[in-house]
Design brief:
The protein is of the alpha/beta class. The protein has one domain (18-346): Alkaline Phosphatase, subunit A (3-Layer(aba) Sandwich), CATH 3.40.720.10. Helices cover 31% and strands 16% of the residues. Strands 1, 2, 3, 4, 5, 6, 7, 8 and 9 form a nine-stranded mixed β-sheet that branches. The chain has a four-stranded antiparallel β-sheet with strand order 10-11-12-13, covered by helices on one side. A hairpin with a 2-residue loop joins strand 11 (366-373) and strand 12 (376-381). Helix 8 packs across helix 9. The radius of gyration is 21 Å and the shape is globular. The N and C termini lie far apart (67 Å).
């Protein structure tokens, strides 16, 4: 009788929905991890996570700017579909940027953007139908956490109290992990499955890591700004280790899916605290590429996969894993389905201006469309916006790179591979013609 009862209890535990923890790095280059081969960055906790995960080394975000990238991760839809393309709406004429968050016209546009998000399928809102509680912590552009469909969170989003891109949520990781761990503990006590959005503003500026991370980086770094950035990667890794250790300590490891991605890339400018023009906000892999990993002990076999995939695939992967059908409007695939991964078509995306020109028209703000298909990457500029005066990178006009042998995009093959370029242009046009 006791054996039967124990078996029933174990079977019930197996049927309990898995928890989900989504870790999102903020402004981190795709090379800047130990498991990606960086010679000096120390990321032991993420290295361990990678070794235990289904790791996609050639992941891409949909856009190289945080707000549209994050919204695509949350919704499983491209920025031009959601109309969330920039970090902020245009500043009204005659209004100084420093005062725009006190301008009624500007704030009306911010509310409109938040409304766009509420119209979309969102991971936490879809999970709520199956009894999940959800928690937002860290970088967040959607106003209140409730806009994203979260049941709980840290960001209030009130512009009159400093709400912009995360407000109180930006303390997570840098100051404390307690709001997230407290939430998980409460859900565990209530036997409620949970979803956590852990998106600390790390390694994002300000690059002010504790000295214990900076000192080992000083020797060998090209400058103090570079040493500080590399140290920030180590600091972020430590917080990930603390979060993952909490899952272990609470016995949650086996029934928790951990997903990792970054919002956009970063290449440190050695001359100062900013980023190089071929990274964040650019059309290059320095701004777009990211490792993507999925860990689910006992359910997902660890593997290192070189197939290009997209952050747009994260939403359908999570939903299918917990037993929720993905809405037809989602553009991605299930990353845990070998067949879907092997047959996945090109990875697409677009880059946009930091401040939208017209929040109702994504076509007004795009700077580049791009795609990665196997060994090759194609980039098409918006000639109405991209000029010699403002183009970051390697010259005007379309670009084509054999990205597997030229990962830093140094040799433009457009003039030598005309037929290939033409075929890729047609695919991009079918995907989105602004």
């Amino acid at each position: 009788m006791l054996a039967c009862l124990l078996a029933a209890l174990l079977a019930g535990a197996d049927r309990s929905p898995p928890n989900v923890v989504l870790i999102i790095s903020d402004d981190q280059g795709w090379t800047d991890y130990g498991f990606m081969g960086h010679p000096r960055v120390k990321t032991p906790h993420l290295d361990k996570l990678a070794a235990e995960s289904r790791l996609f080394t050639r992941g891409y975000v949909t856009s190289s700017l945080c707000c549209p990238s994050l919204s695509a991760i949350l919704t499983g839809r491209y920025p031009h579909q959601t109309r969330i393309t920039g970090n902020e709406p245009p500043t009204p004429a005659g209004i100084a940027k420093g005062t725009r968050y006190r301008d009624p016209g500007f704030l009306a546009q911010v509310r409109r953007l938040n409304g766009f998000l509420q119209e979309q399928p969102r991971i936490p809102a879809l999970l709520a139908a199956k009894g999940y509680r959800s928690f937002q912590a860290g970088k967040w552009w959607g106003g209140s956490f409730a806009t994203g469909g979260f049941t709980d969170g840290m960001s209030h989003g009130d512009p009159l109290r400093g709400g912009r891109h995360g407000d109180e949520g930006l303390e997570i990781g840098r100051k404390t992990l307690e709001p997230v761990t407290r939430f998980m503990d409460k859900c565990q006590a209530d036997r409620a499955p949970f979803f956590v959005w852990y998106a600390p503003m790390l390694p994002h500026t300000p690059h002010n890591p504790p000295p214990r991370f900076v000192d080992p980086q000083r020797e060998g770094a090209s400058s103090l700004p570079q040493a500080k950035y590399l140290a920030m990667c180590g600091w972020f890794d430590e917080t990930c280790g603390q979060l993952l250790r909490h899952l272990d300590d609470k016995g949650l490891r086996e029934n928790t899916i951990v997903v990792y991605v970054t919002d956009n890339g970063w290449i440190q400018d050695s001359a100062g605290p900013g980023y190089r023009s071929d990274s964040k906000q650019s059309q290059y892999d320095g701004g777009l590429r990211t490792p993507i990993m999925v860990r689910w002990p006992g359910k997902v076999k660890a593997a290192r996969i070189e197939k290009p995939v997209s952050s747009i695939d994260i939403a359908p992967t999570i939903l299918r894993a917990v037993g929720i059908p993905a809405p037809d409007s989602l553009a991605g695939i299930d990353l845990l389905d070998d067949g879907k991964v092997s047959s996945r078509g090109p990875v697409m995306g677009a880059c946009f201006l930091h401040d939208a020109v017209d929040i109702e028209k994504p076509s007004a703000s795009w700077t580049y469309r791009w795609m990665v298909d196997g060994d090759y990457k194609r980039i098409l500029p918006n000639d109405k916006i991209v000029t010699k005066a403002n183009k970051p990178g390697r010259g005007l006009g379309p670009e084509l790179y054999k990205i597997t042998s030229d990962p830093f995009e140094e040799t433009n093959l457009s003039a030598m591979e005309i037929n290939r370029a033409s075929r890729m242009d047609a695919v991009l046009a079918d995907w989105w013609t602004p």
